[in-house]
Amino acid sequence: MTKVLYAVACGAPATADLETFVRLAQAEGWHVRVIATPMGVKFLDVDRLAALTGPVRTDFRLPHETSNGLPPADAVVVAPATFNTINKWALGITDTVAVGMLCEHVGMGVPILAVPQVKAELASHVAFKPNLDALRSMGVHVLFDPAEPMPRWEDILTELSAILAG
């Protein structure tokens, strides 16, 4: 049975290299599906990713669509997660399909790893740390050190494996 991993991509520099993460995850046996925020999609080569993963999801389904077209997720990785997405997600503001799906998957108990890529100025904003703490209190795993750049894709997969191993 194939494990399904949702890769949620936001509008941050590391998103331009999401294909590397997808290929690494696929090599570890994951069936990866990509969900992107409206800004995240601007950093992606959507056609290239779709050839690897199937359609890249960027919009809510329409009322006449009975399925969202995605297999159920066994895990979710949000990398890079932006300041905007972290704050909206923690507050339950589901104005994008990506944040809406993140909120739903928290409620479903699906293991989620959030990996923020946030400038130091934004990481020091009064809303950011409490919202990271709120996500942690909901069971979201957060891999973030404001003094370090975003971890390597390999390190993100290692962290996900550790989470799933318990």
UniProtKB/TrEMBL annotation:
InterPro entries: Flavin_trans-like, Flavoprotein. Residues 8-135 form the Flavoprotein domain. It comes from the Bacteria. Transmembrane segments: none annotated. GO terms for molecular function: catalytic activity. This is Flavoprotein. It comes from Actinomadura rudentiformis.
